[in-house]
Specification:
The protein is mainly β and 319 residues long. The chain is 7% helix and 42% strand.
Length: 319
């Protein structure tokens, strides 16, 4: 829970904007009641164990997962002594890996419509583009990282727009969305610290679907929506501390969330949300919600949650 001093500091940094309301047990109870009132989806959560390629190999914390159409799963983890990017098959066998020495805090991994692999580093604010085999194609240094901060202080996620446009959430220090061309040229940015429309308190995840950018504004406890030029379209503030978001092939959104009054990444829910209305269509309980990706209808992957090495979570609709 925030102290009075931290709330005052937040207001100062945000230009005297009103800080987010202090999370309460009543707010958490309302969120739990909302989730539980929706259908609990008839899914089974199966840990997909990764087969270590060498003795002593482990992933440490798996920060993000991405599901390819061909059944391969891409993940990025934080054991910096090993390759950070790992590709596994449906049995957990490591097919290939790369990236040792390239990262400070691996944060997100996404696949673009062409199957290229993009990674986002929240410590260095460097975004990297690879082929599916690991060949480096593009490096974007978002920059403007505060020199007086350590740890997570930069970019958090990436989404892909028409014509190769790239939208990067620069969440931990700069509270903004930055747009780049497909060649890595910065085009524009929007967002400032705060709680008002178009402001952010840690944009942690984002996804684009049918011309709408959905941003998981984590510490503000909401999903904000924008058009491709950064125009504010509205928000949903009923979904808790929203960590992750992805667009499923069937058109709905999946959001990883839990109440705002518990520690970060405590077990919570993967919530199926109507992308037009924000209505909760269903949910599954999940210990991992930092990252979520949908391979196809009836199959959703997530990180396994902190403390779970060498595995991802594979949520599947029961047949």
């Amino acid at each position: 829970m925030r102290t009075v001093a931290s709330l005052c500091l937040y207001a100062l940094l945000c230009g005297a904007q009103t800080p987010p309301a202090t999370p309460t047990a009543e707010e958490a109870a309302r969120l739990t009641a909302l989730i539980r009132s929706a259908p609990k989806l008839p899914w089974v959560a199966s840990p997909l164990a990764i087969q270590p390629p060498t003795a002593g190999w482990n992933t440490d914390y798996i920060s993000s997962v991405a599901a390819s159409a061909n059944g391969e799963t891409y993940l990025i983890h934080r054991n910096l002594g090993e390759d950070a990017v790992v590709v596994i098959d449906s049995r957990g066998r490591v097919l290939r890996s790369w990236g040792k020495g390239l990262y400070t805090i691996p944060h997100s991994i996404r696949l673009d419509p062409q199957g290229n692999v993009w990674t986002v580093d929240s410590g260095s604010s460097v975004v990297l583009k690879f082929t599916p085999q690991g060949k480096l194609l593009l490096r974007i240094e978002v920059g403007e990282v505060p020199a007086d901060r350590r740890g997570a202080r930069g970019t958090t996620d990436i989404a892909f727009g028409p014509g190769g446009r790239l939208f990067i959430a620069d969440g931990y220090a700069n509270a903004r969305i930055v747009e780049y061309s497909s060649a890595g040229k910065r085009l524009r940015q929007w967002g400032t610290p705060g709680t008002g429309p178009g402001q952010f308190h840690l944009p942690h995840g984002l996804v684009l679907r049918d011309g709408v950018i959905y941003v998981a504004d984590r510490q503000n406890g909401r999903i904000q929506r924008f058009d491709l030029e950064g125009k504010y379209l509205g928000e949903w503030n009923h979904l808790g501390k929203t960590f992750s978001i992805t667009a499923a092939p069937d058109g709905d959104l999946w959001v990883g969330t839990h109440a705002r009054n518990v520690v970060n990444e405590a077990p919570g829910w993967l919530v199926n949300v109507d992308r037009k209305t924000g209505k909760v269509l269903g949910y599954v309980d999940s210990p991992g919600l930092h990252s979520v990706d949908a391979r196809r209808q009836g199959e959703v992957l997530s990180d396994p949650g902190r403390g779970n090495l060498n595995r991802v979570l594979w949520h599947r609709m029961m047949r």
